[in-house]
């Protein structure tokens, strides 16, 4: 990749084989660095339709509790056994399945390197960090989207409908 897309090769280093392979595939297919596509302005996906985007933003503490409960539920439903079965197959650690949320920690437990408690805590922590990065990403990509707080779907729908009605009134006023 380095001779064709030195910036991406340097940024990724050698540790992220999956992204390196994707960047190389893009260069092979297009003759252009992948970063060209990140910075190039793309036409809107919904050209001939009016639409409104919303960002669902539950309180982080509630979201983090939900993440923890979900992971604990996965453990109760056999995630440790699934990790053991994958380790026994001697799969390449770079495969997406081996890099899935929590899997590196569960694999470390299955190999006897750490305790089950530490594996679970680290996996939950990494999942919470991923959620935090998603908040950051949506904030940067769509800073103009209204934020819909809360955790209950009915409450969120009421907020969305109220925003929609307000926007609809403004649009109608523009055409009056």
**What is the CATH class designation of one domain?**
Mainly Alpha
The overall pLDDT average reads: 87
**Structural class computed from helices and strand pairing:** mainly alpha
Beta-strand percent range? under 5%
What is the strand and helix layout of this fold?
Blueprint: H1 6-12, H2 17-30, H3 34-39, E1 55-57, H4 60-76, H5 79-88, H6 96-99, H7 103-110, H8 116-141, E2 147-149, H9 153-174
Parallel strand pairs: 1-2
Helix pairs in contact: 4-8, 5-7, 7-8
Please provide a written account of the structure.
- The protein has 176 residues and is mainly α.
- Among the domains are: 6-39, no CATH class; 59-142, Helix Hairpins (Orthogonal Bundle).
- It is built from nine helices and two strands.
- Strands 1-2 form a two-stranded parallel sheet.
- Helix 4 crosses helix 8 (116-141), helix 5 crosses helix 7 (103-110) and helix 7 runs antiparallel to helix 8.
- The longest helix is centred in the C-terminal third of the chain and has 26 residues, at 116-141.
- The chain starts with 5 loop residues before the first helix and ends with a helix.
Condensed summary:
With 176 residues, the chain is mainly α. It has helices spanning 6-12, 17-30, 34-39, 60-76, 79-88, 96-99, 103-110, 116-141, 153-174; strands at 55-57, 147-149. Among the domains are: 6-39, no CATH class; 59-142, Crystal structure of tRNA isopentenylpyrophosphate transferase (bh2366) domain (Helix Hairpins), CATH 1.10.287.
Labels describing this entry:
two-stranded parallel ribbon, 65% helix, 176 residues, mainly alpha, Helix Hairpins, 9 helices, single chain
């Amino acid at each position: 990749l380095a001779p064709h897309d030195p910036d991406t090769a340097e940024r990724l280093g050698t540790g992220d084989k999956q992204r390196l392979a994707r960047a190389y595939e893009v260069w092979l297919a297009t003759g252009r660095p992948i970063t060209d596509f990140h910075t190039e302005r793309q036409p809107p996906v919904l050209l001939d339709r009016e639409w409104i985007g919303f960002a669902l933003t539950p309180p982080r503490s509630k979201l983090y509790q939900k993440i923890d409960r979900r992971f604990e539920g996965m453990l109760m439903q056999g995630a440790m056994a699934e990790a053991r079965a994958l380790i026994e197959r001697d799969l390449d650690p770079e495969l997406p399945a081996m890099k899935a949320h929590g899997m590196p920690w569960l694999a470390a437990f299955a190999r006897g390197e750490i305790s089950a408690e530490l594996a679970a805590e680290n996996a939950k922590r990494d999942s919470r960090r991923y959620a935090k990065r998603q908040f950051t990403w949506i904030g940067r990509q769509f800073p103009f989207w209204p934020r819909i707080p809360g955790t209950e779907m009915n409450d969120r729908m009421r907020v969305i409908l109220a925003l929609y009605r307000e926007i609809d009134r403004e649009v109608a006023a523009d055409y009056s």
